[in-house]
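Long-time lurker, first post. I've been practising inverse folding by hand and with some scripts of my own, and I keep getting stuck on stretches where the structure tokens seem ambiguous. Below is the full token string for one chain I'm working on. Before anyone asks, I'm not after the true native sequence, just a reasonable design that respects the backbone. If someone could post their per-position residues I'd love to compare against what I wrote down in my notebook.
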């Protein structure tokens, strides 16, 4: 790649004066990428993309639908928004349903939804399939038919292999083809964390919409996919998942709810919701509350992926479990003998989970059989609507299913990953230059990742706190980074700290200081400290 030196010089001078990289204000200038790879992205230069395989779940903080905002917080924020007063909106935000419904007249209506989340599987192509299946699921939950979709992708360009983005999009396209849904466009952003999803538009018979508020006393509850995708994804992130669990969960998440949707409409289901990020308890609680009923769930009848019970016994439960508890545990009544691990599984955030269908008891067995015959083998009766109520869920157990004794979970061997890794440490510089020099340009008091002051290298908390203080003191605020660098040279000379001066001279030259500017800063220190400082500086600058 040809380097435009004039453009690089012009752009970097702006960044250096500001004390912030202009394309990433969290970084100093020169940034670690420039120092290590001689690439200035602010000047339009591009790093070479890495190659090889990549494990997507290792690149995100929260996997799959666990990355979504929790239900309680979301409701609190949405409560303050103005209502949409349009008679053509048949189902909107206040309903808290899976998708919105817009009346087109002549008995037809649009059904619209959008869903975006982080990877729940490691393979990029499979993740694209899961993202598509999850996005169209909301349309299926209403009894609609998806027609068109717009893709939405966040991707750390040139930080991981380009082919990963291609495979994500290819997986999504193939799965949407299977759904009979045409992708007609999309939007992408350069994001530190990978995200993918779709905005989907479908059609629905205005008189056959299946909402989550239609459950009736006596109805039977059917769940069409196993639970535990969030637990399995988290276990995979920390290399504690069983390979068969990972494969089964991936296959389930990538499967469409199309058949289940068609059959529930055919059998006249009263209500439906798909079970995703808010967990079985969260989505069921919303269905029960909206329908004005109480329900009962039999824990032992819930379909689970292999290995989920063992993970729960070993404490391998993602943080989304606790967030979902906070959102809806006040509506869940569980008996004392029910182990906490069993309850926790019910709050697991699902990605591309199954449909939860409420249907009259006389049709339930036939619907389950039809689902099995049409390739939905996990479909199971899991509970029933007990009667009118305020939306309580009574979680019960027959005692047939037990939580196993904690035991080591078979670890999946991680594949080789080819990703550019920055060095985690460099040669330590003595004295205050170790912290001050490393953070002279770090914004917001944040210590440079090259020399962390969080205890990764220095276990002494007093020393770590002192280094954090030095970093905060040297952060550009009213004085820019250039001025503070000159002050650091002057103070190093005045105090005759040789390692400090060496570090600050190196930093100054990397920022573009001329020798005349360095000398002028040094003479400011000499003017306060006198002849001994002058002798010290002359000796120090003559050394290599």
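-- Answer (accepted) --
I ran through it position by position. Result:
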């Amino acid at each position: 790649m040809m380097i435009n030196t004039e453009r690089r010089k012009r752009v970097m001078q702006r960044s250096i004066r500001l004390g912030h990289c202009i394309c990433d204000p969290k970084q100093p200038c020169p940034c670690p990428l420039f120092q290590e790879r001689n690439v200035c992205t602010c000047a339009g230069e591009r790093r070479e993309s890495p190659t090889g395989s990549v494990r997507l779940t290792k690149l995100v903080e929260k996997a799959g639908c666990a990355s979504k905002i929790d239900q309680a917080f979301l409701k609190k924020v949405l409560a303050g928004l103005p209502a949409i007063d349009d008679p053509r909106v048949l189902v909107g935000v206040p309903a808290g349903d899976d998708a919105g419904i817009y009346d087109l007249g002549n008995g037809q209506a649009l059904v619209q939804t959008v869903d975006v989340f982080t990877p729940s599987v490691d393979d990029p192509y499979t993740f694209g399939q899961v993202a598509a299946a999850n996005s169209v699921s909301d349309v299926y939950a209403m009894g609609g038919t998806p027609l068109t979709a717009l893709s939405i992708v966040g991707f750390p360009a040139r930080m991981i292999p380009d082919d990963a983005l291609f495979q994500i999009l290819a997986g999504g396209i193939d799965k949407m083809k299977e759904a009979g849904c045409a992708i007609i466009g999309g939007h992408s952003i350069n994001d530190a964390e990978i995200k993918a999803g779709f905005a989907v538009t479908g059609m629905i018979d205005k008189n056959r919409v299946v909402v989550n508020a239609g459950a009736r006393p006596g109805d039977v509850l059917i769940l069409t996919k196993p639970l535990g995708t969030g637990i399995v994804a988290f276990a995979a992130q920390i290399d504690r998942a069983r390979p068969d669990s990972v494969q089964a969960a991936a296959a389930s998440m990538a499967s469409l709810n199309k058949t289940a949707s068609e059959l529930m409409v055919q059998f006249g289901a009263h209500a439906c919701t798909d079970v995703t990020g808010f967990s079985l308890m969260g989505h069921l609680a919303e269905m029960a509350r909206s329908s004005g009923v109480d329900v009962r769930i039999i824990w032992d009848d819930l379909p689970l992926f292999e290995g989920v019970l063992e993970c729960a016994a070993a404490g391998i439960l993602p943080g989304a479990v606790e967030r979902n508890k906070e959102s809806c545990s006040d509506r869940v009544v569980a008996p004392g003998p029910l182990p906490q691990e069993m309850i926790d599984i019910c709050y697991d955030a699902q990605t591309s989970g199954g449909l939860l269908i409420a249907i009259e008891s006389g049709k339930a067995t036939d619907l389950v059989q039809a689902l099995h015959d049409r390739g939905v083998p996990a479909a199971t009766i899991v509970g029933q609507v007990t009667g009118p109520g305020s939306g309580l869920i009574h979680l019960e157990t027959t005692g047939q299913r037990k939580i196993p004794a904690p035991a080591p979970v078979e670890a999946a061997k991680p594949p080789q990953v080819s990703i550019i890794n920055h060095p985690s440490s460099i040669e330590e510089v003595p004295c205050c230059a170790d912290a001050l020099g490393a953070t002279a340009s770090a914004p917001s008091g944040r210590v440079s990742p090259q020399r962390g002051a969080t205890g990764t290298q220095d276990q002494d908390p007093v020393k770590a706190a002192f280094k954090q203080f030095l970093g905060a003191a040297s952060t550009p605020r009213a004085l820019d980074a250039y001025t503070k660098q000159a002050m650091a040279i002057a103070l190093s000379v005045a105090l005759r700290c040789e390692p400090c001066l060496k570090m600050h001279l190196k930093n100054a030259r990397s920022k573009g200081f001329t020798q005349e500017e360095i000398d002028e800063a040094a003479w400011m220190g000499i003017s306060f400290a006198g002849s001994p400082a002058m002798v010290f500086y002359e000796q120090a600058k003559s050394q290599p």
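A couple of notes from the structure itself: The chain is about 40% helix and 15% strand. Residues 124-141 form the longest helix (18 residues). Happy to go over any region you disagree with.
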